[in-house]
Amino acid sequence: MTTLPISETFVSIQGEGKLTGTPSWFCRLSGCNLRCTWCDTPYASWNPEKANRSIDELVTEALAHPARHAVLTGGEPMMFKGLIPLSQALAHEGFHITIETAGTLTLPGLVCHLMSISPKLANSTPVDDPRDPGGAWAKRHEARRLDYEALNECIASAPDRQLKFVVSTPSDLDEIDGVLTNLRGYAPSDVMLMPEGVTLPEPSRVDWIVETCMKRGWTYCPRLHIALFGDTRGT
Ligand code: SF4
Predict the structure, then answer these.
(1) Which residues contact 175 (CB under 8 A, 6 or more apart)?
(2) Which residue's alpha carbon is nearest to atom 6 within ligand 1?
(3) Nearest-angstrom CA–CA distance, 37 and 126
(4) Centroid of ligand 1 to alpha carbon of 184 (angstroms)
């Protein structure tokens, strides 16, 4: 029987990206091949918590709610081959499937309607992070965070995609431009800028982000769940 390491499942509204506001069943897989210093789900990366659950059990739970959008997230869900049969079983039941990934890995055979990719910039690397004494994760993270072959495969693997960049300062824009020159198969509005942080940013902190989006035809991506529920698990 195929099982998956699950950190949490819950029903909420999608807070980010093209489906913002859509009621969805979230399934968070535990485990990640990266260690972002600002990770907002450390219980699925730095300190993974998990219960092994079967695909049948997960699909039955999803069907018990009226939402017919499923968001398969992490951690890094693409680390787990069991994601393939889970996505197939949910699609068979009529779910629209979003997969949230950093885009460093691929899983042929996956069913996905919206590939939500968050390529990691240098601002994510855990430099001098007390959780990484000796810096082994910082080195690994830096080596893994951008894999253009995997990113392009992720972009091409679903009928729709979004590229969500977490930005801290205007200096991140040069790196984003560099990343985008290596990618293909996306529209400008698929590129999204999301302010870093787990609190609601002051309007003055996001002025430059909104301005940049308007200039380049990119999409400003606020986090609706933070506005509605704060930084709370299960939302
Ligand atoms: S890729 Fe996502 S889950 Fe993994 S460490 Fe970064 S923010 Fe956390």
Answers:
(1) 121, 122
(2) 36
(3) 4
(4) 23
Domain spanning 3-165, CATH architecture: Alpha-Beta Barrel (3.20)
Nearest atom of ligand 1 to the alpha carbon of 46: 5
pTM of the model: 0.94
Q: What is the DSSP letter of 85?
A: H
Nearest to 51 by CA among 69, 67, 32, 31: 31
Q: How confident is the model at residue 229 (pLDDT cuts 50, 70, 90)?
A: confident
pLDDT 10s digits, 81-101: 999 999 999 999 999 999 999
Is the beta carbon of 32 within 6 A of some atom in ligand 1? yes
* CB of residue 44 inside a 6 A radius of ligand 1: yes
State whether the beta carbon of 79 lies less than 6 angstroms from ligand 1: no
Task: Convert the pLDDT of each residue in 175-197 to its tens digit.
Answer: 999 999 999 999 999 999 998 87
